[in-house]
Structures are given as C-alpha cells and as structure tokens.
Design goal:
The chain has 2 domains: 92 residues, OB fold (Dihydrolipoamide Acetyltransferase, E2P); 300 residues, 2-Layer Sandwich (BirA Bifunctional Protein, domain 2). The protein has 12 helices and 18 strands. It has an 8-stranded mixed β-sheet with strand order 6-10-11-18-17-16-13-12. Strands 1-2-3-5-4 form a 5-stranded mixed barrel. Helix 4 crosses helix 6, helix 4 packs across helix 12 and helix 8 crosses helix 9. The longest helix has 23 residues. Bound molecules: 4-amino-1,4-dioxobutan-2-aminium adenosine-5'-monophosphate and magnesium ion (MG). The site of magnesium ion has 3 residues, from strand 17.
C-alpha cells in the first residue's frame, strides 16, 4: 500500500507509512516537528517524547534537509497544519541521507538558483508553477480534442525555415543539413488539408541572442490550423481558447495560484470577446507614449505594454504591415501593405502570447513571396504542392506555453515556467 500526503483525508485514525524528503525540521526537548514533502504536498509529522519510539526521538538530528525518509504514524485532522492533516509519528527510517543541501531557506541569487535548477524544482513555489504548467498543457489538449481537432505533431528536424533564416539552429543530418523547427505551422497547413482541423504541440527552437524576460531558446508551442477559417474566425478561436485555459486553471489550480500570491482578480475577467485593434490604431496609441516608435515597425516589449495596460482583457492587434511579417501571411485584399495577421497581447504588460493569421493560398503569390524573402523555392517544393492541389483558405496561430504560464502565474520571467530552461547564455543543467 502506498500512501500520499494529498490523500491523507482517507486515512484519519489509521496508521500509515509516508515516504518523502525532509522539507524542514524544528523542535524542543519534548516535541519535534518534521515537515515532510512527497511531491503531492507537505505534511507535519510530530514526534512527542514518550509517545514515539525513543530511538526515533534520539536520532531526529539525522533528518537534515532533503534526506529521503520513511515515516510511520497515525493520521490526525488538523486544520492548522499545511495540508489540513498531520501525522502523530511513531518512528522513521532514513532511506538516503542528504548533507549540506545547497538551497537553504535563506535568499539565493537567481544565478545560483538557475545553476541548481535540478534541485530548485523541489521548492514550494516551483512545485506550484510546474503544476500550473501541467494544468495548462492538459487544458490545451482538451480544448482542441473536445472540438474535433486531430493532433498531428510536426517534425523537429526540418529542411526549411518557417520564421525567417536569422534564428535557425542548423545541424548535420547525415550527409544533409537540417534545422531545428522554429514552428510546426507549414506542416499543419499540410495536415489541415488532410484532416480539416488540426494542431501540433511540441518544442520549437529559436537562435535568438536576446536576454529578455520573454525569450527562451527552446520553448513549447501549440499550433492549431483550420481549413476555411479566415482571420476573424482565427481570432474567435484564439479568444475562446485563451478564455478556456485561464478559467480552467483558475478553477483547478486555486491552491497553486495562492502559493504564487497571484492576484486572481486580474485573471477572472479574461472571458468573452477581447478588444481588437488594427495595427494603425495600436501604432497611434504607442506613438503617444513612446515618440521614438516608428509607425510601420514591429512592437517592442515596452510598446506592447503601452497597449495592454489600457485594457483588462487580452488585446488582439491585427493587420500588421506586410513588410514585417513572414512570407506565408496573406495580404489584405483591400490594402496590400497590411497583412491578415494577428497577435494577442496578454494583460498586465505580459505582451504577445499568440501570433498567427490567415495564410496566402495563391501559388503565384506564395512563390513570389518566397523569393522576396530570399528563401529557396526548391526547399518549399512540398509546401507549394498545397497550393497546387486544391488550395484552400486557412488560418492558424501559435501560442507560446511558457509566456502563457508566466502570465497566469504572475511571474516576471519565463525562466521559471519550464522545468529546464534553455536561455541565451545558459545550457546547464
Ligand atoms: O509569433 P510566432 O513567431 O509565430 C509563429 O511561429 C507562427 N508560425 C505560429 C503559427 O501561426 N502557427 O510565435 C508564436 C508564439 C509567440 O506569440 C510567443 O508566445 C511564442 O510563440 N514565442 C516564444 N516564447 C518564448 N521564447 C521565444 N523566443 C518565443 N518566440 C515565440
Ligand atoms: Mg510573433
């Protein structure tokens, strides 16, 4: 029988054996407290002199931080205890010792914690972030699976660029050259023609030499693609999707958001339709507060904050200038200097979490775009087939998991949103 801390409510009055790690200890001559963690929660184990085995009381100092231990005792309901239950401990057995654990309850610098990421994950706040991340991933899959999408994951080794050549990681592929995928989009366009509503969900890579709170070198992205959706259908899908993720996390991960001290009143309004701004409107708003902004340029982090701080819901910016968008973006038929693109900017200055739009479907236009972007037509021969054989209007988007986790958890940097972050200048652990 295996007992877990988060299931102790089932065993009140019974004797159980808990296995886990020492989180903390304190005590006096008469009574000693061990806070045990087992991954499912924290439990206070109380050793009363005279009540527990004498030997357990004497060897209590062996319980140094992160020692792996088995504790036997009786479960008691105790509302003041961390999980609502505690253990009247009888005895314990050390499974493996831990000496001089580097992460102590005192404050540590970020660099130190990042170097010890493999151990840092054992702390309470990191548990909460990982659980929220896991919930968000489940929510993403349920949202699409429940709506009849088929998951058609894209390859990670790819022969061509999707988001420009400047951020590609290249690697040898036997006698050939391959790139690590920047986005699964082009493949989703192919599977959308096969299956209608599809998505992929996996790691993507960008060789971006930027040290910002929003950039990872390796990040996870979910990318839906839908046949016959236009830009506006695309934004509608994105807004229902984001509402679902936020509301489900609020419902299922209340305790974790409390640990993270997240002000959930800022997340509760994330439902219904989100405001939409044409690029030109958004650019005017930015220009008022940032005179250095050049209309026609892409937004920087502070520009996005200027926009998002004016709304209590995420904001769509659509119709970015064609000149600053990828080759596959369809141009606005009424005004070709703008594209049928959309980004979703999260609230509270978190910035872009979604990028997407309607794809160019004409073979002729896509071929001239490929050339204009200095890409090699031959590399895209399979992609051009999609415009040769029953080309179709279609749209999609990509949502970055880590930026979404940072936003929902209220973290100021994406480095804590993924178990082992890859950042510019950091490959270890
Ligand atoms: O805007 P991006 O580059 O769009 C695409 O890759 C499209 N091909 C997606 C599509 O239409 N299927 O990236 C999409 C999202 C961003 O909005 C952001 O959330 C995230 O991916 N993202 C990053 N997250 C962390 N670190 C980075 N370096 C990121 N780059 C993009
Ligand atoms: Mg983008």
């Amino acid at each position: 029988m295996r007992y877990y801390i988060d299931e102790l409510h089932k065993y009140v009055g019974e004797t159980v054996e808990l296995k886990g790690w020492v989180y903390n200890t304190r005590g006096s001559k008469k009574i000693k407290f061990l806070i045990l963690r087992d991954g499912t929660g924290l439990c206070q184990c109380i050793f009363f002199n005279g009540d527990c085995e004498d030997e357990a009381f004497d060897k209590f100092p062996e319980l140094t931080q992160e020692t792996c231990v088995k504790v036997t005792g009786t479960v008691k309901a105790e509302p003041r205890s961390p999980g609502g239950y505690e253990l009247s401990a009888k005895t314990f057995e050390v499974i493996a010792t831990s000496q001089d654990y580097p992460i102590t309850p005192k404050e540590h610098g970020v660099d130190f914690l990042m170097n010890h990421r493999h151990l840092w994950l054992r702390s309470k706040k990191q548990h909460a972030v990982m659980r929220v991340r896991s919930e968000i991933i489940n929510a993403i899959r349920s949202f699409f699976d429940d709506r009849g999408f088929t998951c058609t994951d894209a390859p990670i080794f790819t022969p061509n660029a999707c988001e420009g050549t400047s951020t590609l990681f290249s690697t040898k592929y036997f006698d050939d050259k391959a790139y690590l995928s920047q986005s699964g989009q082009l493949y989703m366009e192919a599977t959308a023609a096969a299956l209608g509503k599809v998505y992929c969900f996996g790691p993507t890579f960008r060789a971006e030499k930027s040290k910002t709170r929003r950039h990872l070198i390796e990040f996870w992205m979910v990318e839906p693609e839908v046949a016959f959706n236009d830009l506006y259908d695309n934004m509608e899908l994105a807004e229902q999707f984001v509402e679902y993720i936020v509301q489900r996390t609020l419902k299922n991960k209340k305790h974790e958001l409390e640990i993270l001290e997240r002000d959930i009143s800022k997340l509760e309004p994330i439902k219904g339709s989100f405001p939409r701004l044409h690029y030109s409107e958004a650019a005017e708003m930015i220009k008022k507060e940032n005179p250095d902004f050049v209309i026609g340029d892409d937004f920087g982090g502070t520009d996005e904050t200027i926009i998002s701080s004016q709304f209590d819901k995420p904001v769509f910016v659509h119709h970015f200038p064609t000149a600053i968008k990828a080759f596959y973006m369809k141009e606005e038929p009424e005004d070709k200097q703008f594209s049928l693109s959309c980004d979703l900017l999260a609230t509270e200055g978190y910035g872009e979490i979604i990028g997407g739009g309607q794809r160019e479907e004409s073979l002729q236009v896509i071929e001239s775009k490929i050339k204009e972007h200095d890409l090699n037509l031959d590399d895209f021969s399979w992609y051009r087939d999609l415009r040769r054989y029953g080309s179709f209007p279609h749209s999609g988007f990509g949502l970055g998991i880590e930026r979404t986790v940072a936003w929902i958890c209220g973290l100021n940097h994406v480095r804590e949103t993924i178990p082992f972050p890859r950042l510019y200048g950091r490959l270890h652990p």
